[in-house]
Structures are given as C-alpha cells and as structure tokens.
Specification:
The structure is a homodimer. Chain A is mainly α. In chain A, about 75% of the residues lie in helices and about 5% in strands. In chain A, β2 and β3 form a beta hairpin. At the A-B interface, α3, α4 and α7 of A face α3, α4 and α7 of B. Chain A binds a DNA duplex through α3.
Chain lengths: ~220, ~220
DNA sequence: GCACGTATAATTGTATACAATTATACTGTT
DNA sequence: AACAGTATAATTGTATACAATTATACGTGC
C-alpha cells in the first residue's frame, strides 16, 4: 500500500502479478523464467524470486524441477475470499472503533467528502483510489499489524474485481453511503455496530456482482 | 502440511523460518545472506529466495540494498492472530458442516479416538501431530481453497505457540473434548453450532495461555 | 504403424562472478 | 581530540555459468 519499493526486483514481482490478475497470463499457463525475463528485460534471477513470492500469495503453483503455473481463480474463489474478507473487515472495524484517533476519523470524513464529489462526476479512477485509501485507514486504525497485513494481502488479490464493481456508478453511490455509516459508528466508538456494518459492506459487493452478472469480472 | 516439497530451496526456507520462530534468530537481528548460506551449506541464491518469501509471510522485513531483519512478534500480535484465526476457523467449520463427506467425518472420529489415547499416555508429540491433522481435515472439508490457504499460513505462523499450549496436559484434555463437540455438530450438519464451537475452541487457547502466563511462550 | 529406448534440447536449480550500494576504517585538517 | 573526506571493505542486486532434471525428437526393433 504505502510501501514505495521501486527496486528492480519488486518491480518484476508486481508486473508479473499484474499480468496474472489482468489475465494477460492465462490460468494454467506455464510461466518460463527465461521468457518472462526477456519480456521484462532482466535475467532469470529476479524472475525466480518473484515467482516464488507469487506462489506464497497463491497466484502461482510451483512444481519443483518442472515449472510455475498460473493458478486460475474461479467465481467460487472470489465469493469465498469476499466472505472471508467480510468477517475480517468486520473484526477490523470492531477494533478500529476501540482504537481510532481523532486524526484518523478526520481523514475518513474528508475521504467521504471527496468520494461524494468524484462519484458525482463519475471519475471511477479517483473513486477506486479513495476506496482503497478508506479501507487502508481502517486497517491502520485497527491498531493491529497482523490485521493490516492480512487485509492488505486480500486487497491486492481482489484489485481486479474491485475495478469492475466500483465502475458501476450505482454501486459506487451505495458504497460511499455505507462508508459514511461505518464512520458514524466509529465516531460513536460503537464496536458491535461498526463490525456489523463493515461486514455487510463487503458482502454487498458480492451481491452487487451477482445482480449484474459475472461476465464483467471474467471474460470481456 | 500435506505438501511434501523437499527441494533444497524449500528446505532453506523452512529452516530459516524455524530459526526465527524458535528464537535462534533474535528479533531485529540482521540476516546476512552469506552467513546463513554458510550455516546451511548453500550459496546465497536459495537464501535470497527464502528471505523474500519470509518477507511476504511477515517474519522478515527487507530494506532494499541494506538487509533483511527479523520481525519481532509480540504478545499482542499472537493475541490478534488467534482472534483473527478464531473467526476464520469458525467460518471454516460452518462451511465444513455444509460440505463434509462421510470419509472426512470418519477420519475426524478416528483422530479423536487416537487423541484420547495419546493424551492419556501423555505423548505430547503425537497429540500435537493429531491436532494438526484435525484442523487440516477441517480446512479440506470446508471445500474452499482460499480458506485452506489462509488457515494453513496461520497454522505455520503459530506452530511455536501451539507446542507450548498442547504440552500442558489439562489444555490437551479440554482441546480434545472440544474437538469432539465440533465433530458432533458437523455430523448433524449444524453450521451455526459448528461455527460457534470452532470459534470458541480457538479463543480458549488464548484464555489458556493467559491463565498459565506467557513466560513459556517467549523467554525460557 | 507403434512402442520403446536413447540422444538431444529445453528448463529449472544452484553456484559463482561482477556491479552497485552501503558500511567501515583511515587519514589529514583544524 | 573532533570532524570531514576519502579509500577500503562488506553486503546486497543482478547476470551469467554450470549442474541436474525434465521434455522432446528421433531412430530402431517388432
């Protein structure tokens, strides 16, 4: 999220991840170190490191002495991840209600103010950015390094789906209004309510995809 | 868990992780590629790959061009992880109640039968092994690749703490009886009950550590 | 024509070599 | 003696070289 690490090695890592999430590398496709290295203009060494990291993230399967293969992500996988994430975001909001600072609350309110503006204008790029930031603030205000770590991982993982869902203007409007309610609960330090709202907020994303169909998410 | 991957590279990875979790490498300690390579009798290449993987797991922080440092794990971190895990194990048990097969139920019952035996005998090594297996079966019977993935990660992360808690015989007895109740709920396919019981089961571990003090977990 | 075995090529796994960066020690100046 | 600047060493980052393994192609026997 915040960590600006523009070394060559991490650039390779993120590029490959992006290519998997965007669908440039197809599911089950074999990722050859030499080929990717040539594509990105680097040697096999940083590519190998990246592939092994991506394996831990679950985006790639490595069969020793054979190769690295893109792990396909199914509709069910996305559903599962969202349901898992909804529980975690709920717990995160609960903790945030207990630990959030005045400054963090202020930034959340500013975030919502700006989101209203950009949703109105239909700037989906900025809306996505603000949504990212909203949840990032929540992760930080939970006061838990572990919670932050796991949710940031998920966030990366779902980046692809989120682009689609927030582009739908109707969902964007609802999403911001849900954010507003969460912030209200945080201001009252009402942990149970914050948990419930954050939980529902994530599940609404899935319901939204269900009602609009999954075609946008997968095929074009 | 199940994945037998005894390549040199993954051996290095697990050895370093073990050394961090066991405390051989102290918090904030700088891990030098050359030194570790010599310790393990390998070159820098596999060590580098391992360190970058460990960074993703959150056990190591890498500052580009400077070095890799062991991330200390605090009492609060462990608490947080257990609370996060309790929610996830709850959701996992809920899903398991909906998807578990006859064969998996049979293996769970056999697992409990054997656990009773080894708890009686005081074989903490076997008890730990059976406990690992019990939860592994649950992860598989959830029918969710994503759920399995995330819980296996946590499981590794907490291996160190779990050795201590299950060595306490009293906790071991309670733990097995909680397992039994979870299996009963699964047999009835009572998702809500299974979730509640699994959730409480994990939280009880933390309560147990609290009541016995944290000294065993950290210092000797 | 097909199965099998072997030779060849391609790919991964590991070690080493070199480049770039950072840390350390030394020297001279004030 | 304290400090700055520079040279040296140590360490990380990347590329390449070699070893081990796996995939492929080819030829031989049937």
């Amino acid at each position: 999220m915040g960590e600006d690490n523009y070394s060559l090695s991490s650039r390779v890592f993120r590029t490959i991840r992006e290519n998997i999430l965007s669908g440039k590398y197809e599911p089950e496709e074999e990722l050859k170190e030499k080929t990717i290295g040539e594509e990105l203009g680097v040697s096999r060494t940083p590519v190998r490191e990246a592939l092994r990291q991506l394996e831990l993230e679950g985006l790639v399967t490595i069969i020793p002495n054979k190769g690295a293969y893109v792990v396909g992500i199914s509709q069910k996988d996305i559903r599962d991840i969202y349901e898992i994430r909804s529980r975690l975001e709920g717990l995160c909001a609960k903790w945030a209600a207990e630990n959030i600072t005045k400054e963090q609350l202020d930034e959340l309110e500013e975030n919502i103010y700006l989101s209203d503006f950009h949703v109105e204008k239909g700037n989906s790029e900025q809306v996505l950015e603000l949504d990212n930031r909203f949840h990032e603030i929540l992760y930080n205000s939970s006061g838990s390094r572990e919670m932050r770590h796991i949710l940031v991982d998920f966030h990366h993982y779902l980046q692809r789906v989120r682009k689609v869902t927030l582009a739908e203007n109707k969902r964007a409007v609802n999403s911001v209004s849900e954010h507003r309610k969460i912030v209200e609960a945080l201001k009252l330090h009402d942990a149970e309510l914050a948990e419930k709202l954050a939980n529902e907020h994530i599940m609404n994303t899935i319901h939204n995809i269900d009602s609009h169909g999954w075609d946008h998410v997968f095929g074009e």
